[in-house]
Amino acid sequence: MATHHGKEGVVTAGGSGVGELTGFTLETTADVVEDTALTDATKSFVAGRTSFSGTLEMNYDEPLTVGSSISFVLLPEGNSSGDEKFTGTGIITGMSVNNSMDAIISRSVTFQGTGALTRATV
């Protein structure tokens, strides 16, 4: 299994690369529902629905608006043939702008996935 450097990552939104991107996170989760019977000695669970959310870290550049929809492709390894990609749609749920006297203005954009997250290769 190969390791990869963060500089290989690519994010596209609406078919175009997100400029000034400095990093991203993607979190996937699954609900679990308890199905333990009254006479069982230990608890048991079954998997429920899945969901995803994430964060885009970037220099302050792209015109993104809280509450708007975003269609994206996250490519952690890059966009060469055989690289893994995650495709989905989300709603931008938050944004924080960070400004410091001796630094580049940056922002963090959070999104909540809607529908399915597709995992495939380039």
* CATH first level: Mainly Beta
State the end-to-end distance.
Answer: 18 Å
Q: Using the CA coordinates, give the radius of gyration.
A: 18 Å
Shape: globular
β-sheet strand percentage = over 45%
Q: Give the domain tally.
A: 1
Average of pLDDT: 88
Derived structural class: mainly beta
Strand count, sense and closure of the main sheet?
A: 7 strands, antiparallel
How helix-rich are the residues, as a percent range? under 10%
- Which fold name fills CATH's third level, the topology? Elongation Factor Tu (Ef-tu), domain 3
Name the helix and strand elements from N-terminus to C-terminus, one letter apiece: EEEEEEE
| Annotation field: number of helices | 0
The total beta strand count reads: 7
Poorly predicted runs of 5 or more residues: none
CATH architecture: Beta Barrel
Strand order of the largest sheet: 2-1-5-6-7-4-3
Layout of secondary structure:
Elements (H helix, E strand, L loop, with lengths): L9 E4 L2 E2 L3 E14 L10 E15 L9 E7 L8 E15 L7 E16 L1
Antiparallel strand pairs: 1-2, 1-5, 3-4, 4-7, 5-6, 6-7
